[in-house]
Amino acid sequence: MNDAAIPTEDEADDLPEQMRFRSAKREQLAGSGRPPYPVDVGRTHSLGEVRQIWGHLTAGEETQDVVTVAGRVVFIRNTGKLCFATLQDGFDTEHPAGRLQVMLSLAEVGQEALDDWKSLVDLGDHVAVTGRVISSRRGELSVMASSWQMASKALRPMPVLHKELAEETRVRQRYVDLTVREAARDLLRDRAKVTRSIRQTLDSRNFLEVETPILQPIHGGAAARPFHTHLNAFDTDMTLRIALELYLKRAMVGGADRVYEIGRVFRNEGVDSTHAPEFTMLEAYQAWGDQHSIAELTQSIIVNAADVLGGRQIETPDGVIDLDGEWAWLGVYPGLSEKVGVEITPDTTADELRRIADDHDLTVDPAWDAEKLVIELFGELVEPGLLQPTFVCDYPPAAQPLARPHRNGERLIEAWDLIIGGMERGTGFSELIDPVIQRERLTAQSLAAAAGDPEAMQLDEEFLAALEFGAPPMGGLGLGVDRLLMLFTGVGIRETILFPLLKPRREG
User: Fold this and answer.
1) Which pTM value belongs to this model?
2) Which residues bind Mg(2+) 1 (predicted)?
């Protein structure tokens, strides 16, 4: 069974019979010369426009204003000589889906049209109704039909509207989710508002939006396992990009002093409530900037996005996140030392760190060196407790092979992870532009890859050649757009992605 054939749980038993009935109605429409899917229905007003123009009508007031409206039938009540239905039309980034009542009276449409309505229209169908705008005796703004036509016959039944859809159904059948659940429509609008806000913030600072390749011959820019494919035209193996970084930096070498891209990246890794194999990343690079100027930019991006969604205080089960409060800076080594009650420095040995992991019942890979252990211990022990915005900084070099060595501390790099609500939301660097040190870092990564590390970056000679032409000092930012939506809405990553990748359903 493919995804399109998956019914919701409540419909499963009745689906075959319901589809037979609906398919028969489709054939009846087509056989009588009434197309079940006409190309145009002559709509004159959206449902929202009708409410905006005639919303002042009082109970029982009628007009002679004739409109043609169209939408999906989400409620229907058929009585003897008078039928009622509620139509729902589409929505945009600012407005919820419009809803409006339509009424079909025997006196207005005639017996044949009324009988056809009762026999041919089901919940989920799209219909067009032409008639006068009135207010019912109960004060419900309505269109009193003089005629109607089918706009699109739904062959599958809608889910029961008063029952909550299971999460699996919501993400697997998002087209149904959007139809029946206002929260799903809200999230789609919120995502559009956030991405628009991000662009506005960057554009106002003279950043140039560019596009870089998704298919790449060498994977790099992050420590992640790539997806592999093959380009037949060149008979060469390719990967889907795991980051946007390396090509954006090529643009910086060419003189584009402020660039950004919002695009999909692909990482062939685990799937859980915070990770997806395909997700949206913002990366931005600023010439003559560093990790501090990039931190200020990141804060502005997030605060501005919060403003378009209604506020800078975010309620969570663990407390209120205050985006107007202090955005603290916390060094990895001091933060971990305070948590475990033992001073940890770049000189702390791997054996000592493994003992600390054992003391906290953490399982670590025996092959991890001291730098990797520090990074993992911090992520497990400290990061989940950082509710308020915190720039976790002064990492060991293993954390970010593309970051500059720290100007004030040996064996550290100028890089931070922004933790809000116990989760990484973004990362920033003072970017490494020295081609000699960069070659050393990428060579070490390449050797790790050759030794079997699937997440290690490859040696990218073209990128190194670009750096050898000279890149300006710069700061760089990576921000997960999906995780930003998770912060604002409190939902898992699958809910923030309109059509997330899901495990295939198996028949039987």
Assistant:
1) 0.89
2) 417, 424
